[in-house]
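Tokens for chain A. Residues wanted.
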């Protein structure tokens, strides 16, 4: 035990490290000394957080390794993890200082049994994505009406013929330059990358390209592998000329597709995409042509109407027309004169009749008759208003003893003698 004795008060110049410093030194040694790599194991203790981060362990019969896959990487995976699944994970070692644990930061995970090429594909995809080669911010809009298009492909493949046939059928009027390259096998990726570099050098290739298409027909993963190699993917991403990637069929995806500005499912689809602006412009011009023709026809019709109007005015101003209109005016005057004369005669006749009526009304016989009728009426009114007529209708005149007429009841007194005159005589009476 004496070999382990030490003096806490005198460390001999050796300073004790804090836990934090020691852990950071371990972290630096591990993270700088171990390169990223593939690890095979069984998934256990799987936890998927609401944040999107995924925590799990990789284990085999002899050991266990903590692993974490952060949200950005987790969202790019095609495999759905579950406890007990055998997987192969690609990532780098990191130390979680708060717990003093080391863990695998997983970038790619595939189910065990997937081939080597697929694992390499996923690993390179993760690395290039982390560099930003596939970022949406790097994508450029394609020219709407490209005039010169370069097609990097095999000159003997069916892709070229399909591409040109679609462009011709859709009425495209640009120029296509085929930049020949191997698209399969050893050296294919290097050749395609070299053609992309050539297309970006107008002095060397003798053409200024508006757009590049990089593609080929369909095939297996091995057949299309050249378009997953890093040299070609970086050439596509670094092209100053906008690039359409059209590799394989609709279900095929390559890393060149992710690096290109636009992916087309097939070379034929790329041709349709290139010519879409021309088709739209042709349709727009056709519509403008129809509108111009309609406006021209409207203007022509308006001009015709103006000419017809001027011709009509000229006809009205001609000497013959003036003579005809004068004759018509004379006929109208004659008709109005005849009508006016007939009206005057009728008016005169009516006036004579009225005058005769007035003379008849003013004759002596008529006046005597009218006055007799008036006197008869006055006599009848006088008779109706006489006292005798009033008494005959049931009325009476009451007089006092002196013969004065009593007209109010207040003038009567009890015992007073009065005289009552009726229609047929008089009688005396006493007031009770």
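Reply:
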């Amino acid at each position: 035990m004496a070999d382990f004795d030490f003096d806490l008060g005198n460390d001999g110049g050796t300073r004790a490290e804090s836990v934090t410093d020691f852990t950071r030194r371990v972290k630096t040694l591990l993270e700088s000394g171990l390169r990223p790599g593939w690890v095979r194991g069984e998934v256990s203790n799987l936890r998927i957080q609401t944040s999107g981060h995924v925590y799990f362990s990789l284990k085999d019969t002899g050991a266990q390794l903590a692993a974490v896959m952060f949200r950005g990487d987790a969202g790019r995976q095609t495999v759905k993890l579950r406890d007990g699944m055998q997987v192969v994970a690609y990532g780098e070692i990191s130390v979680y200082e708060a717990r003093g644990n080391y863990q695998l930061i997983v970038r790619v995970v595939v189910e065990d049994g997937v081939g080597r090429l697929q694992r390499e594909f996923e690993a390179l995809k993760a690395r290039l994505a982390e560099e930003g080669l596939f970022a949406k911010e790097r994508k450029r809009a394609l020219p709407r009406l490209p005039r010169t298009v370069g097609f990097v492909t095999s000159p003997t493949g069916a892709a070229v013929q399909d591409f040109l046939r679609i462009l011709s059928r859709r009425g495209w009027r640009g120029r296509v330059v085929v930049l020949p390259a191997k698209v399969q096998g050893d050296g294919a990726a290097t050749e395609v990358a070299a053609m992309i570099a050539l297309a970006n050098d107008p002095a060397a290739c003798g053409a200024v390209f508006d757009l590049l298409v990089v593609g080929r027909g369909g095939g297996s993963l091995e057949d299309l592998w050249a378009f997953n190699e890093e040299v070609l993917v970086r050439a596509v991403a670094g092209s100053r000329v906008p690039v359409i990637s059209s590799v394989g069929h609709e279900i095929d995806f390559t890393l060149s597709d992710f690096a290109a500005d636009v992916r087309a499912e097939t070379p034929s689809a790329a041709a349709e995409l290139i010519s879409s602006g021309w088709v739209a412009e042709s349709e727009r011009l056709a519509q403008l042509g129809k509108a111009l023709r309609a406006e021209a026809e409207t203007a022509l019709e308006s001009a015709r109407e103006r000419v017809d109007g001027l011709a009509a005015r000229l006809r009205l101003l001609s000497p013959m027309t003036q003579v005809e209109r004068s004759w018509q005016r004379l006929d109208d005057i004659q008709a109005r004169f005849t009508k006016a004369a007939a009206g005057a005669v009728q008016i005169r006749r009516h006036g004579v009749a009225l005058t005769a009526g007035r003379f008849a009304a003013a004759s002596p016989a008529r006046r005597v008759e009218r006055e007799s009728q008036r006197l008869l009426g006055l006599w009848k009114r006088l008779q109706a208003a006489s006292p005798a007529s009033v008494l005959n209708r049931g009325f009476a005149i009451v007089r006092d003893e002196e013969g004065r007429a009593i007209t109010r009841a207040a003038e009567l007194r009890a015992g007073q003698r009065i005289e009552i005159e009726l229609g047929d005589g008089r009688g005396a009476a006493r007031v009770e």
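The mean pLDDT is 83. The domain at 19-131 is CATH 2.40.50.140 (OB fold (Dihydrolipoamide Acetyltransferase, E2P)).
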